Each structure stands twice: as structure tokens, then as C-alpha cells.
Amino acid sequence: MSLEGAIAANGNTREWSTIALRSLLSQSKADNRPNLPLLGVSLHSGVTKRSVNDGRPAASEDLTAYKVVAPGNIIMNRLGKPHGSVGMSPWNGITSPAYWVMGINPHLGEPRFFHHLLRSRHMIAECERLGKNQPPNQFDISWDAFRAIEIPLPPLEEQRGIADFLDAETARIDQLALKRRQMRRLLTLKRERVIEATLGLERAQMTDGLVPLKYLVADVTVGIVITPAKWYVEASGTPALRGLNVKPGFISTSDLVQISAEGHAENYKSRLNTGDIVVVRTGQAGAAAVVPAELDGANCVDLIVVRPGMQLSPRYLQYVLNSDYASARVAEHSVGSIQAHFNVGAMKQIPIPSIPRAEQDEIVRLLDVKVGALDLLHRKLDHQEQLLTERRQALITAAVTGQFDVSTASGRNVTNGVSA
What we know:
four-stranded antiparallel sheet, Adenine-n6-DNA-methyltransferase TaqI, Chain A, domain 2, single chain, 11 helices, elongated, 3 domains
């Protein structure tokens, strides 16, 4: 279904003209201004100023080929899944030569309206419909296909009214979402303080109540490291955990690989038992989780396996290894410039509180109650943020496609019941 057809099917009641984007947008290719601020664009934030260490791919050392961006220009990354990495720039700057920098016909279009329109649900779906697959997991839409998209276009003054409404309402929703993120960060800090206080790590450090892990466990070994892929099979094999399956305190069984019977037999030392602790070596080094009963007999790839024995509670050790205390020691002894890599020898030396098993079990019971309450609140805040994100997108799509008249909208209930 075309964009116009999708909008009509969803109840566009406004009398707007239909026009192709080619009549509204033109591409700018001006460059050679390397001293201007560097700009980026994303699905979440639209156009933002870039910093050197912002987690995105590093910019080229030579910026002379980067495209010049003027205030009111639209920047769009035509690659990606989903599309939607697009937005209006409020600044002068430069951006990647791989992006489109578009100017808008000032007689027909309001840039702020198109900022919202091009990020709407219908436009993202239309770009994906017209795009072609580009591995890995990307879509590429051509300039000609993009310019051919037809949209219902309100008069210029109405575009400005819609943009004013959406600027105000999305800012309000974004503020509510920000408060939830801030609360979740505070909960994360409180969670860690509760864990460390209940585990008694600070007291143990002050009273020399710590001993290397190797003296408290039955064994520490490592999963399949040498060419594990040679044992992989498509079906009827033994499940094997990898680093991507292990999160702090949780094991995901999605994307499990399987190894052949021969591979499982040859790598019997890394066979997992219920109650073992698996610890990530590479990437999120130090993340630890207890092996549940349903994975008893599975194998693992490039993970450290700790077998607690009778004197150490698996759940207690999981709490200790996922604490900031243990994470700092893992980071201190990890090697590798690209990805942190933690080895068995360093794992054996991590100092662990040496306390009776009964005391460990009581600490686990207390932590399950305290941390469980904090995690429940964290999940509720996360769910509220997801609702706000969905409501934001629905509001934008309805406004730019004429499904409701913003001039009569009061803005009440825009958060769909999620209050500050």
C-alpha cells in the first residue's frame, strides 16, 4: 500500500492536496567547510551535535568532503532498519557525505512540519517498502524512489500550526520520558548500594574477610575457545551458551547455538551443571549468571565456568560477581584494546567474602526481597517510558496525516494516562 493509501485507510479527514516530495525537497551537496560543527542524525534524537566520543562511528580525519548543513535543512540517513534517522537541523554544521542534506521549498513547506512528517510511522514504513535489502540487516532507498513518494500536504499556515502543536507536545512527552530515565538511573544506583551493603563487602574489605575465589569453589574452567564453530550444527545438537546469552543475573535462551555430539563429548570439561556460574570473558566481561535446571547438560563457548561446591551459594556468588565491587576488579584485570577480555587465572584471584553458607543463604533471601522490589519499580518505569514513546509516535502520525485537527486539540490526555 502506498503512503497516501495507508493514510486514507487510517482515516484522513482533512482536505489536503497531494504532492510528490520531488516538488518540495532538493538535495544540497555543498562541502569544503571542515571547521563547522559536526552533526549527526538518529532515529531517537533527530539531528544532534556530535562529540568525539559519542559512541557512534568516528568521523573521517579529513572533513572537507562532509556536506554543509544550514538551519532548516533536513538531514537523512537513507540506510538502516528501521528508517527514521532523519530530522531538521537548527544549526549550521557539516555531516557525513553518506547522508542526504535537503532543502525545502519555502513557498510550499515548513521545515519543522517535515521534521515530524519524515519521522512519522507511515513515512518510515513507506521508506522500508520502497527500499532494497542491503546486508547486514539494512535497507537502502534511492533518491529517485524517495522523491517519488506522494504525501497529503496541508497549506503552509496549517503546517506551521501542526509544527507548533507537535513541538510543544513532543517536548512535554520527552520531559516525562526523561524523568523516568532519571528515576531508573537513581534506582540502579540504589540497587547497587543495597546489594553492596547487604553483602557486607565494605566490612569484609576492612576486616580482611576476603579470600581468593579459588579457595571457595570446586573448580574454575573455561568453555570452548579453540575454533568452536567447527562443532556447530543446525539441529539435533547440544545447546551451548555464548557471551551474548549471559546478562548480569540472567541467561537468555534465544540465539543459542548447538554443537554436535562429537564436539560435546570432546569438550566435556565445559559441560554445564545446574547451579554452575557462567561468567562472560569478552565484551561485557564479568557479567555472571547461575545456570538454571533447564540448561543442565548444556555446553558453553568462551565463557568462564565456576563450580561453587557445597560451601558457596550459587545465588550469593552471582550477587557478588555482578556487584560494582567485582566489576571494578574484572575491569582492572581485563586485557584487550578493542574488547575487554577476562581470563580464568584472574577469575580465580577475585577476593570473595568468606562467610558460612547459612549466612550466605540469609543474605540471598534478604536481597531477593529488597532487590525484587526495586526491580519491579524499574520495570514499571521502563514500561511507562515505552508507552510514552508509542504515544509520541502515534500523536505525530495522526497530526501530520490529518487524522485530527490540532487547532481543536487541547493537549489533554496526550500522555495516555502516564502522569508526571
